[in-house]
Amino acid sequence: MKWKEERQIDAPIEVVWALFEEEQAARIMPKVIENRWIVKKTDMRGSTYNQTYQEGKRKETYVVEITEFEDTANRKHKHIQFQLARTFEMKLAFTLEKASEHKTKFIYSGSNRGINFVGRAMLKLGSRKNGNQVIHDFMDRVEKEATQDRT
């Protein structure tokens, strides 16, 4: 499954970007309960951290790697990848572009690939509608948190 969605957010680029700091993850990804740095590099590329995710009573910890990182005045970009439950390979990209002093274009793209029989079967059986809903719910949370912080 691959996706690329765009949305205009009524908040400055720096306000939106702050939500993508690893320490802020729970605000936009409520099932992420902890991020703990393993290696934090100056330019962020190649940095890794343990992320703990909780779904009901089940907790899963996996290593997230930052593979791309850009932080300029007019464009912010972070690309991460990780394996979830040794079943899925996740690649996510968050790109922000300054539309004006008070507006930001948010581009969320990624892919979710089954890396074994179970993962591939789950993706085939899962509905595209449900996947799209997860994507839009995430974008809604980013927009809500950014507009709350813009003042």
Task: Describe what this molecule looks like in 3D.
- There is one protein chain.
- This protein has four helices and seven strands.
- The chain has helices at 13-18, 25-28, 117-125, 128-149; strands spanning 2-9, 32-39, 48-55, 58-71, 75-84, 88-100, 103-114.
- The model has no long low-confidence stretch (mean pLDDT 92).
- It is globular, with a radius of gyration of 16 Å.
- The termini are far apart.
- Strand 6 and strand 7 form a beta hairpin.
- The chain is of the alpha+beta class and 151 residues long.
- It has a seven-stranded antiparallel beta sheet.
SSE layout and pairing:
Elements: E1 2-9, H1 13-18, H2 25-28, E2 32-39, E3 48-55, E4 58-71, E5 75-84, E6 88-100, E7 103-114, H3 117-125, H4 128-149
Antiparallel strand pairs: 1-7, 2-3, 3-4, 4-5, 5-6, 6-7
In short:
The protein is α+β, with helices and mostly antiparallel strands. The protein is built from four helices and seven strands.
N-to-C series of helices and strands: EHHEEEEEEHH
Structural class: alpha+beta
Number of domains: 1
Ends distance: 37 Å
What are the low-pLDDT stretches, counting only 5+ consecutive residues below 50?
Answer: none
Radius of gyration: 16 Å
CATH architecture heading: 2-Layer Sandwich
What is the overall pLDDT average? 92
Give the strand order of the largest sheet, numbering strands 1, 2, ... along the chain. 1-7-6-5-4-3-2
* Net shape: globular
CATH T-level topology? Alpha-D-Glucose-1,6-Bisphosphate, Chain A, domain 4
Helical percent range? 25-40%
SS elements, strand count = 7
CATH class: Alpha Beta
Number of helices: 4
CATH superfamily: START domain
Percent range for β-strand residues: over 45%
Largest sheet: 7 strands, antiparallel
